[in-house]
């Protein structure tokens, strides 16, 4: 299955048996979520078949998948906030009586039965708005069951749940399994996977690496399968390079329940990598530092001066730059030209008395196109014509033009081909050597290992470990990220 | 527990409207004890029907996150066509006339529906265009001539003058009965039919609605068709209420009052919620304000200003409520 | 497949030529340039509103209150003049009022985060309502020395209002297409979130855009006072329709991020020609309304069609 030119899933065979919970694990970007969405009809495969109860099927849409008994439970529940629980379960198929009248009593009692059979304590008449994420997922589950779903795909459903809610969810999952459902549990939380799954399939870089049962293997082996590359080659970078004074200091930063007590610092010339699982709170920290959201407590210091950052504008003024995770929606104006995108943040400095200097835009962007080696025909092309890697370079140019002191990159090489990836890494090294302080958030362990000097690991909203240059191994990082340190070999 | 609050908040909106209503009525009553006399009550009771009938359709549209500003022109066009029919065919049955008005309105609404649901034109633009196109048609059809009172059959004006119930000088007119029937049918549809529930779903979460297989395009088209249809019926009721149909004034500017009534009545402009009783309350409130203004010595030149302010207040209430609910679920 | 790159302004330009031809064929009075120039003064007010509307639509919003803002400023200015204020100070206050009215729209939309079509629908009523309360059914008389600007001509029989309009159009065109503010307007119309993340002060730009619309309404109001000599609350009905239609016909996208002052000006001339032509052919005002309304819908439909076709070619 290919996405925008980058192959995401290659030749994966998997079967889901009734009465079994089958775990799908892998690093971020390994393809497990894509696999789940393919099975649920959200995406269409570019090759291969999906067979349900032995018969190959074309799943053209989530609704078709539902009709064939396959349901997907999302991490962010897809519910109708203004309707009540019972109706959320039966939306579009409310039970009727008589002259096609909605049978509210029946709907409410059937909803109640469904919820009871799941062991969930929810009032069918309660409005869904205001329910916790965990409860909304229950509603989604009940909806799936009401359509006699035989195959359930739980896509990172535990990412937003508290441990107590996860335990409650697992009770229900076991109940469903014992009733004969085939359940796919897509996750990267190894402890949970080991707890609930009967079989585990490991994906890496879009391919199936192996299948095990929790009994026959232990966590370290699974991690090795997930990470897989020649460990020797991927030693933690320990580059020299003079480091200057501390540029960015984050002190006790908190944001409600999302992250708390995050403290770290980055010096001039350093590249610090931030690893962690999806939902660990890394992007949230970056957004809070950059002023997109407001931290509830703690402070940020830039060059020793406490910074007041209420929005990205103020962040920029104080020397911060953020290359966001979602390039297409947050990083670029897709239909707009490359040069206009590249100069978007520094337009003011390219204008005299409000007058925009078109030639300067053209010249400056051409200059950076050369520096970053962006492959294009013409700087006035719309940026959406470029490949992912080149688009990312345009975003990078935009921020480099602001001459920041601190550069934060969130998943800088996601969706970028191997060649461009190497170039971006080289660029980052050059920038650091020139004196920039760089924070790189990445889910690509290989990238974290080879590019960053110090490595920070976040888990569930807290900064749990910090590795000095040369100290980390991929395994230890992964263990810290998944909370498996007790299993360390 | 939070969702209990959410449920109560929804009910609170309507209570808020009720409170406003009581405040306005009390102020007027305090100023002039004759406020609640038969004449004024009759005025209010005649004010409501047209507003409520059109309001039913507008409510459906706004629930789906849309808007229809062409309802006034639709009223005018249906009203003039049926008026002319009455003029040229004096024997025409008034119920037949009403049915024709409904049908004309449905066609006009369907055009909106096609533009919005099929051609994906934003609702404000589509209905802004049809507002003008239909008003122009009113003139073309009528050749600029008004349909005078002697051309409107007595049976029609009877709906305004008489009614099934008369209590101490206050008449519950047949016009009001029409409104009650329309409200009842709308409430039934919204509560008891799948299509009605689909309307709420589409407004509450359009993406989820599509994923769950709800026929969004079809329902959206239907919603605008219904909105047009009731506006068409209201055109005929207009003839009954005022006794004549003037191409320039029939329904002109009515869309503003209807939207104000619907929005203050608890139908959230962000979509997904709204009730028939709420809209009726909104109509009652606007009718009361209208009469109260007169009683309080504030002449009708203040009307437009008041309606606009009502919409703004309702908007800010909804926005404030949304933000508060958002904070509730974020749990920060 | 060959990529056809047509500038969006070509459409109204071509239609303008066609309309001219049609008008000329319809009636010989049409080609009387003195008549045309004199008639143009009627559309300058709408034209100014359309210029302001261009900014609003490019930023991804809509302003339904422009006609009401115009009328309110016209009434207030006339009232001041009637009460003895001097012409310059009355006009000055009128201009300030226009900016304030627009800024109120902007604040409600940008800070309270309400959708622009409902907010301006409400302020459309509130502003005209205030005018109605202020004047009631009366007219306010404009100081005699200020009346009749539309009758003044520059050499070549070019009416002063038209000159004013063209000057303002050039200035606004430069602002929208050549200045920092203009770039920001396009940016937030294309993708407000990405623009905000890139340090663009989205809220301030939005307020600025609506204030500009208010300023244009104030200019239109002054011209209207001068032309009519009196101000009434029920003047200027429906101007917002022509203004919005002009902007969309001129190639702007209703979704924001695309549009041009030149296109708006051309489309405005097109509408003026259409209306003058219809006037000469004795088409009643209300029929003209129907034509413009239909034109609005057609403009959006064709805009959608064009963008869908061009994005298909890319794929």
Task: Please explain how this structure is put together.
The complex is a heterotrimer of chains A (489), B (332) and C (315). Chain A has 489 residues and is α/β, with parallel strands linked by helices. Chain A has two domains: 2-227, 3-Layer(aba) Sandwich (Rossmann fold); 246-487, 3-Layer(aba) Sandwich (Rossmann fold). Chain A is built from 17 helices and 24 strands. In chain A, a hairpin with a 2-residue loop joins strand 4 and strand 5 (55-57). Chain B is built from 13 helices and two strands; from the N terminus they run ααααααββααααααα. Chain B has helices at 2-31, 38-63, 71-88, 94-118, 123-142, 154-161, 174-192, 194-204, 206-211, 216-242, 254-264, 276-295, 303-330, and strands spanning 165-167, 170-172. Chain B has a two-stranded antiparallel sheet. In chain B, a hairpin with a 2-residue loop joins strand 1 (165-167) and strand 2 (170-172). Chain C is mainly α. Chain C has one domain (10-314): ABC transporter involved in vitamin B12 uptake, BtuC (Orthogonal Bundle), CATH 1.10.3470. Chain C has helices at 10-26, 33-58, 66-82, 87-110, 116-135, 160-178, 180-190, 192-197, 202-228, 239-249, 261-280, 285-314; strands spanning 140-141, 153-154, 158-159, 230-231. In chain C, strand 2 (153-154) and strand 3 (158-159) form a beta hairpin. In chain C, helix 2 packs parallel to helix 6 and helix 3 (66-82) crosses helix 9 (202-228). Chain C is globular. The termini of chain C are close together. Chains B and C meet through helix 5, helix 11 and helix 13 of B and helix 5, helix 10 and helix 12 of C.
